[in-house]
Each structure stands twice: as structure tokens, then as C-alpha cells.
Write a structure and sequence with these properties.
Layout lengths: L4 E2 L4 E2 L4 E2 L4 E2 L4 E2 L4 E2 L4 E2 L4 E2 L4 E2 L4 E4 L19 E2 L4 E2 L4 E3 L2 E3 L4 E2 L4 E2 L3 E3 L4 E2 L4 E2 L4 E2 L4 E2 L4 E2 L4 E2 L4 E2 L4 E2 L19 E2 L4 E2 L4 E2 L4 E2 L4 E2 L4 E2 L7 E4 L4 E5 L14
Parallel strand pairs: 1-4, 2-5, 3-6, 4-7, 5-8, 6-9, 7-10, 8-11, 9-12, 10-13, 11-14, 12-15, 13-16, 14-17, 15-18, 16-19, 17-20, 18-21, 19-22, 20-23, 21-24, 23-26, 24-27, 25-28, 26-29, 27-30, 28-31, 30-32
Antiparallel strand pairs: 32-33
């Protein structure tokens, strides 16, 4: 006897298995060859591709919560979460409704991916990472453990963010109505890299193939192919030629 709940309108593909105490909501679609752990909750309208692994106690398609004084969470109609084929979703991951995860993405244990977020193919979202709402993340990116990506941010392809890097979108720290005119996340252009414990202030752009040193405080846009360091960060030197994207033997 199964301890799981499967809606009569949910569809589970061939050779897909699931553990105990799972919930498959209305109109959920799970592809072929998936492996679903114990205690997984897949909320209504979520679509899971083929050969996806979802580990214990993950939650897919969660509805957003809106605090009475929230500045960025909006009442809205959201489509179900969508996870493309060949992804791995770790233990206790929470992926919200209105989120799109591309193929062969890894979302590691304890990560949270908010609504209105897209994550491109082959990207790695590390353990404990938080991706807030209205973010766009490209292909082949890597966000290492405990990265915090604020709302309204964009990362282009091949971006690397080291552990515990933090971003912000509000220079007013929650005070005054003026802040509503200026909410803006960070932009990291193709191949940009951010070091461990770096902090990027609201609205700043990390240049293509540029590098932010560990512990840096970025208060202005960074130039392409340059290393910036310090607090506040200042241009230090060129990125080594052998490290530039143009000199890597990687697929596009």
C-alpha cells in the first residue's frame, strides 16, 4: 500500500519511481525514467521532464508568500514550475511556481529558487543558494554554496560566483518611498566571475570576462577583462589571457 498521494489528473511517465509520503498535485506531469525520493511535494501544474532525479523532501511549484509590507512580491497568476529533462534536484530544495529550469541543471541541497526565475542549461546552483524572484540566469553558470542573488538580477552565460558572495537591490535599506523608484539587481555579463565573500551593490554591472576579487565591495560597474579588488573595489590588473573565455576549449 502506497503512502503517497497522486491526483487523478497527475501523469507519471514510464519507469518513473517515487518514495513514500510524496504528493503529486492536480495536472502535474512527470516524464519517463524519473527517480523521486521520499516526502517530495510537486504542486499543481508542475511539469517535470524525463530522467529527472528529485531527492527527499524537495518542494516543486510552491506558491509565493506575500508579507503585508513586501516591496517586491506581487499578487500574480503564475504558471506551474517547469524542470527540463536530465536535471538533479537535491534534498530540501524549494522551487517556486513560475520558475523555469533548463536541461541538465543541478540544484543542490537546501537551495531556494523563487518565482519568475529562469535558469539556463548545464548551470549548477550550489548548496544553500538563494535566488530571489525576477532573476535570469544563463547557461553553464556556477553559483557555489550560500550565494545570495537578489531580485531583479541577470547573469549571462558562463558566470561563476564563489561561495557566500552577496548582492543587493535596495540602496535605501527599506526606508522611504523613494526606494521604489530605484530597485535594481545586479548584472553579470558573459564570463564574469565573482570571488568568495564579495559584495555587489544595487544596479552594478560586472563586465564581460571581468573578475571581482574575494572580499571586494563593488560600488561601481567593472570594466571588461579586468580584475577589481578592495573595498571599495578598484581596477587592479588585466585578467590573465589564458583565463579569458576566448581561450577556453568549451562548447558554446
Amino acid at each position: 500500500m502506497s503512502n503517497s498521494i497522486v491526483s487523478s489528473s497527475a501523469k507519471l511517465g514510464q519507469n518513473t519511481s517515487h518514495g513514500e509520503f510524496c504528493v503529486f498535485g492536480d495536472n502535474v506531469t512527470v516524464g519517463d525514467g524519473c527517480v523521486i525520493g521520499h516526502g517530495v511535494k510537486i504542486h499543481a501544474d508542475s511539469v517535470i521532464g524525463d530522467n529527472v532525479r528529485i531527492d527527499d523532501n524537495a518542494v516543486i511549484g510552491k506558491f509565493p508568500m506575500k508579507a503585508a509590507n513586501s516591496a517586491v512580491t506581487k499578487e500574480q497568476i503564475l504558471e506551474g514550475a517547469a524542470i527540463a529533462s536530465n536535471c538533479i534536484i537535491g534534498t530540501n530544495v524549494v522551487i517556486y511556481r513560475g520558475c523555469r529550469i533548463g536541461g541538465k541543471v543541478l540544484v543542490a541541497d537546501l537551495a531556494t529558487v523563487r518565482e519568475n526565475v529562469s535558469v539556463g542549461e548545464f548551470t549548477i546552483v550550489g548548496r544553500g543558494v538563494t535566488i530571489e524572484n525576477f532573476c535570469e540566469i544563463g547557461r553553464y553558470c556556477k553559483l557555489e554554496s550560500n550565494v545570495y542573488l537578489c531580485a531583479y538580477s541577470k547573469l549571462e552565460d558562463r558566470v561563476f560566483v564563489a561561495p557566500c558572495a552577496a548582492t543587493s537591490n535596495d540602496n535605501y535599506m527599506g526606508r522611504s518611498k523613494e526606494r521604489f523608484k530605484h530597485f535594481k539587481g545586479v548584472t553579470v555579463l558573459k564570463g564574469g566571475r565573482i570571488g568568495v565573500n564579495a559584495t555587489i551593490l544595487p544596479g552594478k554591472t560586472i563586465g564581460a570576462d571581468s573578475q571581482v576579487a574575494g572580499g571586494a565591495l563593488v560600488t561601481r560597474d567593472t570594466p571588461a577583462k579586468k580584475i577589481v579588488a578592495g573595498a571599495p573595489a578598484r581596477e587592479w590588473r588585466d585578467v590573465a589571457a589564458e583565463q579569458l573565455l576566448e581561450n577556453q576549449d568549451w562548447p558554446e
